[in-house]
Amino acid sequence: MSVPNHVAIILDGNGRWAKAKGLPRTAGHVQGAKTLEQICEDAYHMGINYLTVYAFSTENWTRPDSEVAMLMELLRNYMKNSIKRAQKNNMCVRVIGDKSGLAEDLRTSIEKLEQATQYNTGLHFQIAINYGGRDEIRRAVVKLADKVAAGVLKPEEIDDKKIAAELDTAGLPDPDLLIRTSGEQRISNYLLWQASYAELYFTSVFWPDFDKNELAKAVEVYEKRDRRYGLVEEE
Ligand code: IPE
Ligand code: IPE
Ligand code: MG
Predict the structure, then answer these.
(1) Closest by alpha carbon to 216, among 186, 177, 188, 173?
(2) Per the count of CB atoms within 10 A, which of 65, 119, 176, 221 is most buried?
(3) Closest ligand 2 atom number to CA of residue 128
(4) In the chain, which stretches have pLDDT less than 50?
């Protein structure tokens, strides 16, 4: 089997990475953001066309206020600083998740980055912020219900395609490989609809230490898998 077209990553273990080094959790997030920049380049060089990472979940708001504030600041800086790099790498960036729950200035920075990179044809890079799979499905259901109420859609016309088209990932292929770092083996509300048939790969490496070699290992394992969709073997 060939290189996965779409890789999704639950980047986990920033806090534990920092703790193991006697550093504050925030140092783990700073290093994790650097890892992310590098992985985007490495993934594309390896032949991966779509990369979707989990940066902040709908549940992460319950973390201490200071950590939430620090993560939002990191994301703010990321949006502002990555326009240049994204252009240089021909990367198309899109944020998934409920943007209405984000601060207005962060939303503006996200829109600027998305608009500036929308026609780029290199890596399609999705960052999940204020994202939860259940919340995404709930928002899609509300949109469909609105259409039914407005009389432009019949309930019996709602099929998988119509649901997928209302998700934040509309237009994107489903992930082929889902990676989670740091030893946790949970989905944590990530891409619940889209990852239905993704191959799962777990590694104990903390996210800040995840690099090209670790990504290559995951891809190698994926390539050896006997990938079946509902019992139809891939050619
Ligand atoms: C992942 O690292 C980053 C985010 C969830 C924002 P964590 O912050 O979850 O790190 P651990 O799991 O506590 O080590
Ligand atoms: C999942 O990691 C969310 C992100 C990576 C953004 P968490 O560390 O928040 O998940 P749990 O709490 O261990 O399930
Ligand atoms: Mg964690």
Answers:
(1) 177
(2) 176
(3) 6
(4) none
